[in-house]
Design brief:
The complex is a heterodimer.
Chain A lengths: L19 H24 L20 H15 L5 H9 L5 H5 L1 H16 L1
Chain B lengths: L10 E6 L4 E7 L5 H5 L9 H19 L5 E12 L8 E11 L3 E10 L2 E13 L4 H13 L4 H4 L2
Antiparallel strand pairs in B: 1-2, 2-4, 3-6, 4-5, 5-6
Classes of the chains: A mainly alpha, B alpha+beta.
């Protein structure tokens, strides 16, 4: 006899009838939680001060050296290579703003894209 | 060891770029003005110079991995430990490993030995910066040859 299904037993990838938008939001939230933990631990910033809208440099005052440690932890945690040189070049050339890469919700989107590209 | 030039490595004895590991020998000179000050009557190799030996050993490896496209500037030293005293005349061996090659940066782990005992270890972060002068890059090949590092094989 089967017992009642508990939500905690659902496979992580189980999406039921939810839309791809919901899936994307859920993925992003997982990525954000992990990135926020990395930043909190690496830079000794209280976790509650780290929000999806926070800009790593302007709001959290993370300098470029600390960002290297964060990049290392992110590369390791997600098995990717953040293209920091390319991003820096784009910002320096005026082709991108720092918001696109350093506002955390945007950074998490870039991370999810890199994870998806790796699996493709 | 050319202490007066801050060039710490005498020669590489093993370089495995694919395996991301290299080993080098550095012999502490018997005489140096460094030992007149550190310390008078008790010449002792400064611990920061042991860190530099580890940084240079691993730095050459980072250069090879990145095709000598930029200078690996030491940006971080974590868990740096000086475990034993080192004196003039001691022959030291260092091992550098690159544990992560990121975009524009690299992370390595290094260790040093004297007479079979570990003297130091650290985790090192490098920022890869464009060579600030053509002279610096041009001079690398001669320097590499002097210390038995196969630089030209890996230059892009």
């Amino acid at each position: 006899m089967r017992g009642p299904m508990r939500p905690g037993l659902l496979a992580p990838g189980w999406a039921g009838a939810s839309s791809s938008k919901d899936q994307r939001a859920r993925l992003m939230s997982t990525t954000f939680d992990k990135v926020a933990e990395i930043i909190a631990e690496t830079c000794d910033i209280p976790r509650e001060n780290i929000k999806p809208e926070s800009h790593a440099i302007n709001d959290l005052e993370i300098d470029s050296l600390d960002f290297l440690d964060i990049a290392f932890a992110i590369d390791k945690a997600f098995g990717i290579k953040l293209p920091l040189e390319q991003w820096t070049q784009e910002v320096n050339d005026g082709k991108a703003t720092t918001d696109q890469y350093f506002v955390l919700k945007n950074l998490c989107e870039r991370i999810d894209e890199l994870i998806a590209a790796k699996g493709a | 060891m050319r202490l007066e030039y801050f060039q710490m490595i005498d020669r590489f004895v093993a370089v495995d770029v694919g395996g991301r590991v290299a080993r080098a020998i550095c012999t502490v000179p018997l005489q140096s003005t460094v030992f007149e000050g550190h310390f008078p009557g008790y010449p002792l190799m400064p611990g920061v110079l042991l860190i530099e030996c580890m940084a240079q050993t691993t730095g050459w490896l980072v250069s090879a991995l990145t095709g000598f496209t930029g200078l690996p500037a030491l940006a971080g030293v974590k868990e740096g430990k000086i475990r034993n005293a080192v004196f003039p005349g001691d022959e030291l061996e260092f091992e550098g490993k690159v544990i992560h090659e990121g975009s524009g940066y690299a992370v390595g782990e290094a260790k040093g030995w004297c007479k079979g005992a570990v003297i130091c270890d650290a985790t090192l972060t490098y920022r890869i910066v464009p060579y600030p002068s053509a002279e610096l890059r041009a001079g690398l090949w001669e320097w590499a040859e002097r210390i038995n590092f196969p630089a030209k094989e890996f230059a892009k």
